[in-house]
Amino acid sequence: MAGPRFLYVPTVATGEDGGGEPVTGVTWRLVGGNNRELGRAAAALADLATCRAEVAELRAQAARLCPVLAMAGGMGMWAWRVALDKRLVAVAPRPYRRQREAQYNLGQFLAALPAAVLPEGVSVRPRLRDLHLGTRLRPAPGDGRAPRSLAVGEGR
User: Fold this and answer.
1) What are the CA-CA distances from residue 126 to residues 66, 129, 138 (Å)?
2) Predicted local distance difference test score (pLDDT) of residue 1
């Protein structure tokens, strides 16, 4: 099994100016050796260079990180977040039913942080609309692989 690694993921969101112009950025995610997400950036960053710099700072300043467990929303769920110099830098990938689950997963994130492999570029993910049942994935030109249909549960 592979070890933990960071993924740099491109993001696209609607602009806040009301004009509907798409705003692009890059965010990071930390995944474990089993590809389960351990934590993610608190916010999207302007570009890949800024994202890489934040990950480098996060790793270099690991001893100064301030983790916090808190109730998430009004549903009795728990989540964690991590701040550096009062600036939120990382959040839990999802809420947890029990406080001990959130605490355990925070520990997994903090333990994986210094050992995680850093990628060179962004990770390319298929668009959600391409993951519907029956959609054919086409290989890149010259790839040599035949397209395949997605089965139920694939593409996650």
Assistant:
1) 34, 8, 11
2) 59
